[in-house]
Amino acid sequence: MKFIIKHEVKGRLRIHVIRNRMTCAEADILCWTLEKQEDITSVKVYERTADAVIYYTGDREELIGRLRKFRFEKKDVPENVLSSSGRALNSAYREKLIAKVLLHYGGKLILPNPIRKLWLTFKAVQYIGKGIRCLAKRKIEVPVLDATAIGVSVLRGDFNTAGSVMFLLEIGELLEEWTHKKSVGDLARSMSLNVQKVWLKRGEQEILVPSSDIMPGDTVVIHMGNVIPFDGEVSAGEGMVNQASLTGESLPVRRTKGQSVFAGTVMEEGELEILVRAVSGSTRYEKIVTMIEDSEKLKSELESKAEHLADRLVPYTLLGTGIVGLLTRNVTKALSVLMVDFSCALKLAMPLTVLSAIRQAGQLGITVKGGKYLEAVAEADTIVFDKTGTLTKAKPTVKQIVVFGDYPEPEALRIAACLEEHFPHSMAKAVVDAARKRKLYHEEMHSKVEYIVAHGISSYIDGKKAVIGSSHFVFEDEKCKIREIYQEKFDTLPEEYSHLYLAIDGELTAVICIEDPLRDEAKDMVEMLRAEGISKIVMMTGDSERTAASIAGRVGVDEYYAEVLPEDKAAYIEKEKAAGRKVVMIGDGINDSPALSAADAGIAISDGAELAREIADITIVAEDLRGIVMLRRLSDAMMRRIQGNYKGIVSINGALIALGVAGLIQPTTSALLHNTSTLAISLRSMSGLLPEK
To answer: Which of 426, 471, 536, 597 could make an S-S bridge to 382, C-beta 3.0–4.6 Å?
Structure first.
């Protein structure tokens, strides 16, 4: 690629590609290619000027060398990058906006007056038609008000007023449509699949491979709690699949051999072998967009109230127009009331505020599936945290392996890793990583693996039952024993670690001691949440009382509960809600899913289990828990803006009506000021709610 450097400072480079302009596809390819580079922190590509601004941390000359070698080719670019980037959408709407402005003001200057009147009358008929169709449905809503205002202006021969009203209505509709589609698109992209590796079935073996290596016709194995990354057909197995991302239905559906499954759905129970039909999951993005657009989840309670209020105000506006006309016998003063439409501003500004909040949340690394969940976060007085992977770093490490039987330490770790690698949990990953560091690789040597949520894993090795998991699971559920000669050794296990128990053939084989350090920011985050108005902060964990008490004391939560099951977390949340409290749940694992569903707003940590992310209403990046505080502030800011918009709309439009009735302003001026204020409030609603750092 040929380019020139227009400007640079340390860590920042602005280049110009040697061409008049880039296409949207070329801009997307360049942006995607650069963002993949590890030493590039941020990229902005401007297709109209063929410029790119690159923020980097690596070597300057190396970066320039890579830019020289770059070619605008699509072959390595994922399908959804070009189809759903949003760049083409923004370009199209900018052109539409410019065209409408030029058409309106150009028509005033160029078109002869008779032709312009004819054209405005034709447009007015369309608005009047909408009003008549609304009345035919026995509804008196915004279209009726618009039709009346435009129709009366045309009948009076006031084509300037009619033209201005229609122009501003069109601009408002276009801006609303643009913002809505962009926000929905941003949200859909954030919800799109990001599955790095999958289990490929080859003969009787399961091999972990990059998802990009999968081709149509391959068979992949989907274990419990994992996302299904491809459209396909079940070739073996049976399971319950959560399809909420596609259908909006939270209840899982049973899938068996011969039935279809779709990319983006999640294995809630069981295990499936899937014959891959489409590797791109090409319909995933479109399905998500449809779900969001059709879902009432997109609307907050305040937003819905504002829309209903807007429709209810229309008859009163018409009544007020009639009363003023009868009392004053002055059509001009009556029109001044008619030209001021409370409902238009309410219907436009409120959704834009919510969508802007969702968009800004996305910029902060937070995915919100609907405005009502932001409202729930703003109103929340209780927050429930899971411990492992949420308050802790989700990067546990194996610190010690204590053996209790005939298996040496390396063999015990190898068996544990062999069982644990099939399931998405931070503790399981710690075991697998420890085995890999010791180069304890293996071929699959066990039978089908069974995962018992919040308990552990069960399988057979050489005909002997092998289980790994919690103390409750191994000793109480599975009735495993400890040899007498090892009892003292067992009683002196180090207390500062979490324990994972491995038993083979009914006897304890090894205890894996795992350290899961507390997040550095956890204590500060709890204090900041209290400052933001959260009155009750709770920690719930399946870990031991000893470990839970230690973590709770260090974090500073109000209450904690240890050795709880998934249903216990959900039951606690339901109890708090029944007591009139607004509850937010934050978790990362499969065992948190019932609680995430039960809460007024469920928040999943982004690097947790796919099932948790799918069920959750909000997903937040795991880099810093203080993002939860930012979410609370953003939600509060959204509510303040909605309430401020309501007060502003009522005040401005009330003043315009008073001035019109007093005869101080003409209907044309009233319409212009009303529509200008509506656009101003709407544009403000589109702006960020929190200051950018």
So the answer is: 536
- Helices (H) and strands (E) counted in the chain, each on its own, are 24, 24
pLDDT digits (tens, 9 = 90+) for 303-337: 666 666 666 666 777 777 788 777 777 777 777 77
Burial class (CB in 10 A: 0-12, 13-18, 19+), 423: buried
Q: Which pLDDT belongs to residue 577?
A: 94
Q: What is the C-alpha separation between 507 and 389, in angstroms, rounded?
A: 29
| CATH number reported for the structural domain that contains residue 450 in this entry | 3.40.1110.10
Residues 379 and 528 in one domain: yes
Taking only the tens place, the pLDDT of each residue in 428-484 is: 888 988 998 888 876 556 566 776 655 678 888 888 899 998 888 899 888 999 998
Enumerate the H helices of 36-158 as residue ranges.
60-69, 79-83, 87-110, 113-136, 142-155
For residues 147-162, give the mean pLDDT: 82
Of 229, 245, 280, the last residue of a domain is: 280
What lies within 8 Å, CB to CB, of 526 at 6+ separation is 537, 555, 556, 557
Task: Please state at what angle helix 159-191 crosses helix 667-686, rounded to 10 degrees.
Answer: 10
Same domain flag for 503 and 404: yes
- The per-residue pLDDT for 584 is 95
What is the span of the domain harbouring residue 449?
397-515
Confidence of residue 609 (pLDDT cuts 50, 70, 90): low
Span 329-349, average pLDDT: 71
The CA distance from 659 to 157, in Å, is 23
Q: Are 322 and 226 in contact (CB under 8 A)?
A: no
Under DSSP, the state recorded for 242 is E
Confidence grade of residue 525 (pLDDT, cut at 50, 70, 90):
very high
63 assigned to some structural domain: yes
Does 181 map to a domain? no
Residue 687 DSSP SS3: coil
Cα dist from 451 to 164, 210, 395, 468, whole Å: 66, 23, 21, 10
Q: Are residues 561 and 623 in the same domain?
A: yes
Q: Which residues contact 275 (CB under 8 A, 6 or more apart)?
A: 217, 218, 219, 232, 233, 234, 235
String of DSSP letters for 309-326: HHHHHHHHHHHHHHHHHH
pLDDT at 196 over 80: no
Identify which of 468, 483, 464, 485 has the alpha carbon closest to the alpha carbon of residue 398. Answer: 468
Cα distances from 186 to residues 84, 85, 180, 368, in angstroms, run 9, 8, 10, 11
